[in-house]
Design goal:
Elements (H helix, E strand, L loop, with lengths): L6 H10 L14 E3 L6 E3 L1 E5 L16 H4 L5 E5 H6 L9 H21 L2 H29 L16 H12 L1 H27 L8 H20 L2 H11 L2
Antiparallel strand pairs: 1-2, 3-4
Helix pairs in contact: 5-9, 6-7, 7-8
Length: 244
Protein backbone atom coordinates (compact mmCIF):
# COMPACT_ATOMS: atom_id res chain seq x y z
CA UNK A 1 0.00 0.00 0.00
CA UNK A 2 1.26 3.46 -0.94
CA UNK A 3 0.50 6.55 1.07
CA UNK A 4 -0.12 8.81 -1.91
CA UNK A 5 -0.82 12.53 -1.90
CA UNK A 6 -4.34 13.84 -2.32
CA UNK A 7 -5.09 16.00 -5.36
CA UNK A 8 -5.35 19.02 -3.07
CA UNK A 9 -1.87 18.36 -1.66
CA UNK A 10 -0.42 17.93 -5.15
CA UNK A 11 -1.87 21.25 -6.24
CA UNK A 12 -0.52 22.97 -3.14
CA UNK A 13 2.97 21.53 -3.69
CA UNK A 14 2.94 22.73 -7.30
CA UNK A 15 1.52 26.16 -6.54
CA UNK A 16 3.99 26.89 -3.74
CA UNK A 17 6.92 26.65 -6.19
CA UNK A 18 5.17 28.32 -9.10
CA UNK A 19 4.68 24.99 -10.89
CA UNK A 20 8.44 24.77 -11.40
CA UNK A 21 10.75 21.83 -10.70
CA UNK A 22 12.38 22.12 -7.27
CA UNK A 23 15.77 20.95 -8.57
CA UNK A 24 17.68 24.23 -8.02
CA UNK A 25 19.57 23.86 -11.29
CA UNK A 26 16.47 23.01 -13.29
CA UNK A 27 13.45 25.09 -12.22
CA UNK A 28 11.68 24.04 -15.41
CA UNK A 29 8.09 25.20 -15.73
CA UNK A 30 5.98 22.05 -15.55
CA UNK A 31 2.60 23.27 -16.77
CA UNK A 32 1.43 25.09 -19.87
CA UNK A 33 -1.02 25.04 -22.76
CA UNK A 34 -1.25 22.12 -25.14
CA UNK A 35 0.06 22.80 -28.62
CA UNK A 36 -3.47 22.30 -29.90
CA UNK A 37 -4.56 25.20 -27.74
CA UNK A 38 -7.14 23.07 -25.97
CA UNK A 39 -6.47 22.73 -22.27
CA UNK A 40 -3.16 22.37 -20.42
CA UNK A 41 -0.44 19.76 -20.08
CA UNK A 42 1.32 18.98 -16.80
CA UNK A 43 4.87 17.62 -16.84
CA UNK A 44 5.34 17.86 -13.08
CA UNK A 45 5.03 15.35 -10.28
CA UNK A 46 4.55 15.48 -6.53
CA UNK A 47 7.42 13.30 -5.31
CA UNK A 48 7.78 11.84 -1.83
CA UNK A 49 10.81 13.00 0.15
CA UNK A 50 10.48 9.92 2.36
CA UNK A 51 9.10 7.01 0.37
CA UNK A 52 5.38 6.33 0.18
CA UNK A 53 5.83 2.59 0.81
CA UNK A 54 8.38 0.11 2.21
CA UNK A 55 11.30 -0.55 -0.12
CA UNK A 56 11.27 2.95 -1.54
CA UNK A 57 14.15 5.40 -1.23
CA UNK A 58 14.42 7.20 2.08
CA UNK A 59 11.52 5.20 3.58
CA UNK A 60 10.86 6.02 7.24
CA UNK A 61 8.92 3.29 9.10
CA UNK A 62 8.28 5.65 12.01
CA UNK A 63 6.11 7.97 9.95
CA UNK A 64 2.34 7.66 10.02
CA UNK A 65 0.41 7.22 6.75
CA UNK A 66 -0.91 10.76 7.19
CA UNK A 67 2.64 12.13 7.52
CA UNK A 68 3.83 10.25 4.42
CA UNK A 69 0.93 11.65 2.40
CA UNK A 70 1.20 15.13 3.92
CA UNK A 71 2.42 18.36 2.38
CA UNK A 72 5.66 18.42 4.43
CA UNK A 73 6.77 15.09 2.90
CA UNK A 74 6.25 16.25 -0.68
CA UNK A 75 8.38 18.08 -3.22
CA UNK A 76 7.30 19.25 -6.66
CA UNK A 77 9.59 18.08 -9.48
CA UNK A 78 9.57 17.74 -13.24
CA UNK A 79 9.03 14.09 -14.13
CA UNK A 80 12.62 13.55 -15.20
CA UNK A 81 14.06 14.70 -11.90
CA UNK A 82 11.32 13.07 -9.86
CA UNK A 83 12.63 9.78 -11.25
CA UNK A 84 16.29 10.68 -10.82
CA UNK A 85 16.11 11.58 -7.12
CA UNK A 86 15.12 7.99 -6.40
CA UNK A 87 18.28 6.61 -7.97
CA UNK A 88 20.75 7.30 -5.20
CA UNK A 89 20.11 8.00 -1.52
CA UNK A 90 23.75 8.88 -1.00
CA UNK A 91 23.46 12.18 -2.85
CA UNK A 92 19.70 12.79 -2.77
CA UNK A 93 19.22 12.67 0.97
CA UNK A 94 16.18 13.63 3.03
CA UNK A 95 18.05 16.68 4.28
CA UNK A 96 18.97 17.79 0.75
CA UNK A 97 15.41 17.39 -0.57
CA UNK A 98 13.97 19.36 2.34
CA UNK A 99 16.48 22.09 1.56
CA UNK A 100 15.49 22.01 -2.12
CA UNK A 101 11.84 22.29 -1.13
CA UNK A 102 12.52 25.30 1.08
CA UNK A 103 14.75 26.98 -1.51
CA UNK A 104 12.24 26.39 -4.29
CA UNK A 105 9.45 27.98 -2.28
CA UNK A 106 11.68 30.94 -1.43
CA UNK A 107 12.78 31.27 -5.06
CA UNK A 108 9.20 31.24 -6.30
CA UNK A 109 8.62 34.43 -4.34
CA UNK A 110 11.97 36.05 -5.11
CA UNK A 111 11.73 35.35 -8.83
CA UNK A 112 8.77 37.71 -9.03
CA UNK A 113 11.12 40.53 -8.06
CA UNK A 114 14.73 39.43 -8.42
CA UNK A 115 14.72 37.09 -11.41
CA UNK A 116 16.56 33.75 -11.57
CA UNK A 117 20.20 34.70 -10.95
CA UNK A 118 20.89 32.04 -8.29
CA UNK A 119 19.49 29.26 -10.47
CA UNK A 120 21.52 30.35 -13.48
CA UNK A 121 24.66 30.58 -11.34
CA UNK A 122 24.20 27.04 -9.98
CA UNK A 123 23.63 25.56 -13.42
CA UNK A 124 26.54 27.50 -14.92
CA UNK A 125 28.96 26.34 -12.21
CA UNK A 126 27.86 22.72 -12.43
CA UNK A 127 28.25 22.75 -16.21
CA UNK A 128 31.87 23.86 -15.79
CA UNK A 129 32.53 21.23 -13.13
CA UNK A 130 30.99 18.58 -15.40
CA UNK A 131 33.24 19.52 -18.34
CA UNK A 132 36.29 19.58 -16.06
CA UNK A 133 35.49 16.10 -14.73
CA UNK A 134 35.28 14.75 -18.28
CA UNK A 135 38.73 16.20 -18.97
CA UNK A 136 40.08 14.53 -15.83
CA UNK A 137 38.83 11.17 -17.06
CA UNK A 138 40.67 11.66 -20.36
CA UNK A 139 43.87 12.53 -18.49
CA UNK A 140 43.55 9.47 -16.28
CA UNK A 141 43.41 7.24 -19.35
CA UNK A 142 46.83 8.57 -20.37
CA UNK A 143 48.21 7.96 -16.88
CA UNK A 144 46.96 4.37 -17.04
CA UNK A 145 48.83 3.80 -20.31
CA UNK A 146 52.18 4.94 -18.94
CA UNK A 147 53.17 5.22 -15.31
CA UNK A 148 55.18 8.35 -14.58
CA UNK A 149 54.05 10.21 -17.69
CA UNK A 150 53.95 14.02 -17.61
CA UNK A 151 51.10 15.48 -19.67
CA UNK A 152 50.00 18.98 -20.62
CA UNK A 153 48.42 20.43 -17.49
CA UNK A 154 45.61 21.90 -19.61
CA UNK A 155 44.17 18.39 -19.50
CA UNK A 156 43.59 18.99 -15.80
CA UNK A 157 41.66 22.28 -15.94
CA UNK A 158 40.86 24.11 -12.70
CA UNK A 159 38.34 26.91 -12.36
CA UNK A 160 39.73 30.17 -11.04
CA UNK A 161 38.55 30.62 -7.46
CA UNK A 162 36.90 27.19 -7.58
CA UNK A 163 36.55 27.03 -3.80
CA UNK A 164 34.46 30.21 -3.79
CA UNK A 165 32.31 28.97 -6.67
CA UNK A 166 31.70 25.68 -4.88
CA UNK A 167 30.83 27.48 -1.67
CA UNK A 168 28.27 29.62 -3.54
CA UNK A 169 26.26 26.59 -4.60
CA UNK A 170 26.99 24.24 -1.68
CA UNK A 171 23.59 24.75 -0.07
CA UNK A 172 21.88 23.82 -3.32
CA UNK A 173 23.83 20.65 -4.07
CA UNK A 174 24.24 19.33 -0.52
CA UNK A 175 27.24 18.53 1.72
CA UNK A 176 28.04 15.08 0.27
CA UNK A 177 28.43 16.30 -3.30
CA UNK A 178 30.18 19.48 -2.18
CA UNK A 179 32.75 17.45 -0.24
CA UNK A 180 33.41 15.12 -3.19
CA UNK A 181 33.90 18.00 -5.63
CA UNK A 182 36.13 19.77 -3.11
CA UNK A 183 38.32 16.67 -2.72
CA UNK A 184 38.61 16.17 -6.47
CA UNK A 185 39.49 19.77 -7.24
CA UNK A 186 41.96 19.97 -4.36
CA UNK A 187 43.88 16.86 -5.39
CA UNK A 188 43.86 17.92 -9.05
CA UNK A 189 45.30 21.31 -8.10
CA UNK A 190 48.00 19.66 -5.98
CA UNK A 191 48.96 17.13 -8.66
CA UNK A 192 49.07 19.82 -11.36
CA UNK A 193 51.78 21.58 -9.33
CA UNK A 194 53.64 18.29 -8.88
CA UNK A 195 53.48 17.59 -12.61
CA UNK A 196 54.62 21.12 -13.52
CA UNK A 197 57.66 20.72 -11.24
CA UNK A 198 58.50 17.37 -12.84
CA UNK A 199 58.10 18.83 -16.33
CA UNK A 200 60.59 21.61 -15.52
CA UNK A 201 63.02 19.05 -14.09
CA UNK A 202 62.84 16.87 -17.19
CA UNK A 203 63.61 19.63 -19.69
CA UNK A 204 67.13 18.29 -19.95
CA UNK A 205 65.79 14.88 -20.93
CA UNK A 206 64.29 11.79 -19.27
CA UNK A 207 65.71 10.79 -15.89
CA UNK A 208 65.46 7.57 -13.93
CA UNK A 209 66.34 8.61 -10.43
CA UNK A 210 64.96 8.82 -6.91
CA UNK A 211 62.86 11.91 -7.71
CA UNK A 212 61.26 10.05 -10.63
CA UNK A 213 60.28 7.26 -8.26
CA UNK A 214 58.69 9.79 -5.87
CA UNK A 215 56.80 11.33 -8.80
CA UNK A 216 55.45 7.90 -9.78
CA UNK A 217 54.29 7.30 -6.21
CA UNK A 218 52.49 10.64 -6.16
CA UNK A 219 50.86 9.81 -9.47
CA UNK A 220 49.74 6.44 -8.11
CA UNK A 221 48.17 8.16 -5.09
CA UNK A 222 46.45 10.68 -7.36
CA UNK A 223 45.01 7.90 -9.52
CA UNK A 224 43.80 5.89 -6.53
CA UNK A 225 41.94 8.87 -5.10
CA UNK A 226 40.47 9.94 -8.42
CA UNK A 227 39.18 6.43 -9.08
CA UNK A 228 37.62 6.44 -5.61
CA UNK A 229 35.90 9.81 -6.01
CA UNK A 230 35.35 10.27 -9.76
CA UNK A 231 32.77 7.53 -10.32
CA UNK A 232 30.12 6.99 -12.96
CA UNK A 233 27.45 7.77 -10.37
CA UNK A 234 29.13 11.08 -9.58
CA UNK A 235 29.20 12.08 -13.25
CA UNK A 236 25.54 11.20 -13.65
CA UNK A 237 24.72 13.24 -10.56
CA UNK A 238 26.61 16.29 -11.85
CA UNK A 239 24.86 15.93 -15.19
CA UNK A 240 21.56 15.83 -13.29
CA UNK A 241 22.23 19.36 -12.06
CA UNK A 242 23.04 20.64 -15.55
CA UNK A 243 19.93 19.33 -17.28
CA UNK A 244 17.21 21.75 -18.26
Amino acid sequence: MRDDFSEATKKELAAMVGYKCSNPCCRRTTIGPKLSGEGTINLGEAAHIKAASPGGKRYDPDMTPEERAGYENGIWMCRTHAALIDRDEKYFTVELLYKWKQKAEESAGKELIEGEGTIRKCKFRMNIFYRDLKEYISAMELFKMRRGVVINTQMLPIQNNWEEHLEEISELIGPELTATLYNINRIVEEFRLTMEEEARRLKGGPKLDYISVIYCQKQDFFMDKMQEWLTKDLLETIKFYTEI
